[in-house]
Amino acid sequence: MTAPDVDAAARFLAGDARVLDRRRFERLFSGGDARPVRDAVAAFRNSDGGFGHALEPDGRTPASQPAAVGLALRTLDEADAWDEELVAGACEWLAANAPAEGGASFVEPTVEGWPHAPWWDAEEGRPASLFTTGDIAATLHARHVEHRWLDDATALLWRRIDKLDDPGPYAFRGVLKFLQYVPDRGRAEQVLQHVGSLVFDRDMVALDPDAEGEVHTPLDFAPNPDSIARRLFDEATIEAHLDHLAGSQADDGGWTFNWPAWWPVAASEWRGSRTVDALRTLRANGRI
Question: Whole-model pTM?
Fold first, then answer.
């Protein structure tokens, strides 16, 4: 069984990661306090309650963006640094900037004119994104938040899931995370039975741990033993991908990502983020 070198990861983060991910590591693996994580997240907050300033490294506009809000909420949740004021402000921003159908877009037009990944283009008409809407709604449901944006987003997600046919891997990840935490557990289980096969029928998952390129692995869809989608994969496949994840630690102690590196600073920031993510997944699965 391959095991990661946590000390090497700590040294990589100290030398190469931004403060946010160093504080995440300190909180999750070194007994650090929650407050520094909260403060690190708050540094990316705007006066409108949303988050920007490249909190999500692919969108480097100062303006608030849905993906940055999603990352802020996930970080506060994972570190048990939940802050009611920050969350309330984020929910108000989401409500004020929701598409006509509800939920959240993938990218807001305020990205224009600022450095951003080629895939970070605002879609005409600002349609709701299953990826960002599912991700944000899931975190809020996990924390039992009550807000009008979440009510509308949940209704939107159920409507879209009922018609789900070929969502693409990122959207499907948003759907699965939503199904993980939405309070209606009976409906979530029923829906998974209906849509679970799409991950294979639409060729969204790479079962070969050595598959190259921008692929999506079983651990992307079901990172933890209690993930709702874990039942879609057999134990041998999960163990093989855990071996590969642990063995993918680079000589400098960090992990990298498998999508295009479009900007040096963004690539460096993603490596820090992915390193903490990799350690979290490995620990959740008994590899640390």
Answer: 0.96
> Is residue 94 within 8 Å of 46, Cβ to Cβ?
no
Both tokens of 253, joined, read: 């102690």
pLDDT bracket for residue 230 (50, 70, 90)? very high
pLDDT tier, 3 (very low <50, low <70, confident <90, very high otherwise): confident
Share of the chain above pLDDT 70, in %: 100
The pair of structure tokens assigned to 71 is: 């990352």
Q: Give the mean pLDDT of 177-188.
A: 98
Q: Counting Cβ atoms within 10 Å, is residue 163 exposed (0-12), middle (13-18) or buried (19+)?
A: exposed
DSSP letters for the chain: -----HHHHHHHHHHHS-HHHHHHHHHHHS---SHHHHHHHHTTB-TTS-B-TTSSTTB--SS--HHHHHHHHHHHHHTT---HHHHHHHHHHHHHT--TTSS--SS-GGGTTS-B-TT--PPTT-PPPHHHHHHHHHHHHHTT---HHHHHHHHHHHHHHHT-S---HHHHHHHHHHHHH-S-HHHHHHHHHHHTTHHHHTT----STT--SS---HHHH--STT-TTGGGS-HHHHHHHHHHHHHT--TTS----SS---SHHHHHHHHHHHHHHHHHHHHHTT--
**Euclidean distance between CA atoms 37 and 202, whole angstroms:** 38
Q: Report in angstroms the alpha-carbon separations of 272 from 63, 87, 269, 278.
A: 23, 24, 5, 10
